[in-house]
Write a structure and sequence with these properties.
Elements lengths: L1 H18 L12 H16 L4 H25 L4 H7 L8
Length: 95
């Protein structure tokens, strides 16, 4: 479970990072209204501390933290590092 969660969080982080440049809005014209609107949209999407991008990256970080908490919980229940690692290995279907 931990391995799947961490892999998904890392995959999401990589995808979001690669999408960030596409979230920059360019002004359609050279006038002040277009420039201001583009700057505001870019800020809301990717530039501001509370942008959609920042919120998504925070969510990904929270998912990563969840994966780490699962490992800590397993250790608190007395599982060894080897047992924890084995529990994250793909299971063979038994017939």
């Amino acid at each position: 479970m931990r391995k799947v969660i961490l892999a998904a969080a890392e995959d999401a982080r990589i995808k979001l990072s690669s999408l960030a440049p596409n979230l920059i809005v360019r002004a359609p014209g050279d006038d002040e209204v277009s420039k201001t609107a583009a700057a505001v949209w870019t800020g809301n999407l990717v530039g501001n501390e509370d942008s959609h991008y920042a919120r998504l990256m925070q969510y990904v970080s929270n998912v990563f933290d969840l994966g780490m908490q699962l490992e800590e919980a397993a250790k608190q229940y007395g599982y060894s590092d080897d047992e924890i690692a084995a529990s994250f290995s793909p299971q063979q279907n038994q017939v």
